């Protein structure tokens, strides 16, 4: 079984892909549980050649991991928010320490602009979100945006 995550490479690290590699990546992003035999049929290769291609894509760093996508709502997290943090110092250790012990922060991005970080946060309730943002606010000024809905939650990638 496969489940693909693509990313993490700089432009200078770009790996040349042919149409078969691109087809493999598309199928794996659409159906990460596909068997090697079914993947091989979908891309018109033998199972052994397909397994070799997938292994090469992993070794080259094109496929960077395997995962399952889960429903935050089904796990009790009914609120999603983005918290922008204006971090006042260049010492990021307190932020990294807080991220380490705050599993409700599911993404953290160091960004340009007035804010230094954008954090994706999941919460069980508004009072839970208030608790989480209170902890984050100890590090610097925050702005919180609660998500109403998400018309696009994931998009598959092809070569740039």
From TrEMBL:
Q: Does the keyword Cell membrane apply?
A: no
Give a GO molecular function annotation for the protein: sequence-specific DNA binding
Q: Where in the numbering of this chain does the HTH asnC-type domain appear?
A: 17-78
Organism phylogeny: Bacteria, Bacillati, Actinomycetota, Actinomycetes, Mycobacteriales
Alphabetized InterPro entries for the sequence: ArsR-like_HTH, AsnC-type_HTH_dom, Dimeric_a/b-barrel, Tscrpt_reg_AsnC-like, Tscrpt_reg_AsnC/Lrp_C, WH-like_DNA-bd_sf, WH_DNA-bd_sf
Question: What is this protein's record name?
Answer: AsnC family transcriptional regulator [Kineococcus radiotolerans = ATCC BAA-149]
Q: Which domain of life is it from?
A: Bacteria
GO cellular component assignments: cytosol
Q: Name one GO biological process term.
A: response to amino acid
Q: Spell out the Pfam families in the cross-references.
A: AsnC_trans_reg, HTH_24
| Keywords, sorted A to Z | DNA-binding, Transcription, Transcription regulation
Species this chain originates from: Mycolicibacterium parafortuitum (Mycobacterium parafortuitum)
């Amino acid at each position: 079984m496969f489940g693909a995550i693509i990313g993490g490479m700089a432009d200078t690290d770009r790996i040349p892909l042919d149409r078969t590699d691109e087809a493999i990546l598309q199928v794996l992003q659409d159906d990460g549980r596909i068997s090697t035999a079914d993947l091989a049929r979908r891309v018109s290769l033998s199972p052994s050649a397909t397994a070799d291609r997938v292994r090469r894509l992993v070794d080259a760093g094109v496929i960077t991991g395997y995962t399952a996508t889960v429903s935050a709502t089904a796990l009790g997290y009914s609120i999603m928010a983005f918290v922008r943090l204006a971090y006042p110092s260049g010492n990021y250790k307190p932020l990294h320490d807080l991220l380490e012990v705050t599993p409700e922060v599911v993404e953290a991005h160091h960004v340009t602009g007035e804010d230094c970080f954008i954090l994706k946060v999941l919460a069980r309730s508004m009072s839970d979100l208030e608790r989480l943002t209170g902890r984050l606010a100890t590090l610097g000024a925050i702005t919180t945006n609660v998500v109403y809905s998400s018309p696009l939650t994931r998009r598959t990638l092809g070569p740039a």
